[in-house]
Amino acid sequence: MSWSDSRQYCRDRGADLVIINTEEKQRFISSLVSERVWIGLSDREQEGNMKWVDNSTLKQGFWLKGEPNNAYNEDCIELNYNREKPGWSPLNSWNDDQCSAKKKGICEK
Question: Ranges for the C-type lectin domain (predicted)?
Fold first, then answer.
């Protein structure tokens, strides 16, 4: 599903895409995933201005080295599970991707 479709999937179930605003939560979510998944963060409204789905601004990020890079007009944020990627760690695993890319999202109530 695209980022928007993943968000709608969550909202249809009384939830929304996950907001990861602590190191503890980042470590926990990272331990659960075994594929690339959407989280509730994007800069779709204004390039470079990352906002969570509750409209709060990003205070602490857990980016892969060199990310976010907006390489191909990438506005939506995934948690990348690829533990073989150079520099990956539970605290360095976010990547920006095209919002139309197909992947699952992590929902939270």
Answer: 1-108
3-state secondary structure of 20: coil
The fold of the 3-108 domain, in CATH, is: Mannose-Binding Protein A; Chain A (3.10.100)
Confidence at residue 87, expressed as pLDDT on a 0 to 100 scale: 79
Q: pLDDT per residue over 52-98, tens digit each?
A: 999 999 999 999 989 999 898 999 999 988 877 777 888 999 999 99
What pTM does this model have?
A: 0.93
In terms of Cα–Cα distance, which of 49, 97, 92 is closest to 71? Answer: 97
d(CA 30, CA 28): 5
Distance CA 84, CA 87 (A): 8
Domain ranges of the chain: 3-108
Q: Collapse the DSSP code of 17 into the 3-class scheme (helix H, G, I; strand E, B; otherwise coil) and give the result.
A: strand
